[in-house]
Predict the structure.
Amino acid sequence: MKVITEQQRNKPQEMVNRFLRGMRERAVVSRFRPVILVGIFLVLAVGCGGFWGGVAGAMNALILFGVLVGCLYFLGDRMILYVHRAQRLTEEEAPEIFEIIRELCLKLNLPEPDLYLLPSAAANVFSVGRSPQHSAIAITYGALKVLNSKEMEGVFAHELSHIMSHDILITTIVAAITGLPGMIAAMLPRSADWGSGERYERGETHPVVFFLTLLWIPVAAVLVRGFIPRRREYKADRQGGTWCGNPLYLASALRKLGPESEKFPLRSAEPATAHLFIVYPLSGQRWTSFFRTHPPVEARIARLEAQYRDSRRRDERLCSSQPPHLWPEGATDCP
């Protein structure tokens, strides 16, 4: 019989410790990106204020910018949820979802996020917030219909990865800044002359909002592509696949969400907020490709399947070299 050394026995725990240390280091790096983004806009705002109004103009710009940043930090997630018409979910309405979230959060030692429902036939999910203590996950009605409990576990584990790594702060701030024209359009009072009657029913955009949006599109595209790296989805897939217990759960969910998103695009989604979703919600609109930060769904599924095969081989090696009481958690027999 093969002798198990102390080093081999402690290897799984060392792997977990290295993983958690890496998560903490990446979270620290993620916290600096919002500071860089705010710093860029601070220089632009104060510079423009100083150019037009001298010292007084620069001071006024600094004060207004401080108020804007405060609003984005504390209210950015609520603004995004409002624009997408998200409705707060209660445990009585969706006990299964709350149970899945509760088990994952207990496993990861995370506070439970608020849960919201988007009244849309599109199948998608996204998370927003400024910290794990102030976060929310929104799921569409269409996603609830097409995903089973295991697939939802994989999807929620993916979103909790964004929350745990503090990705949601930079994504929420970028979405709030780049989506300001769209949010202004959504929040315009319906009693206004343009917002009433046939024009509102036809969904025509106010000319002022259209002009602001046209000017803002290149700036928004640069912000989204510059501050939202594509690898963040791969990282969340990898971590979510591990946390839900089986990467194939998330792979199966993506296999359903991808085609459903193309079949039923999310009407309330904007290019500036598309990066928030687990799959790209604006399929079929070519001009929005400038904002696309999602890798192809097929590539993400392939990586998750490879992750499953790697974990299977690792379990086989552990089971073949160690007695049953040291087998990986959940293993009942050697593969």
About this structure: The chain has one domain: 26-318. Strands lie at 87-88, 114-118, 125-131, 134-140. The chain is about 65% helix and 5% strand.
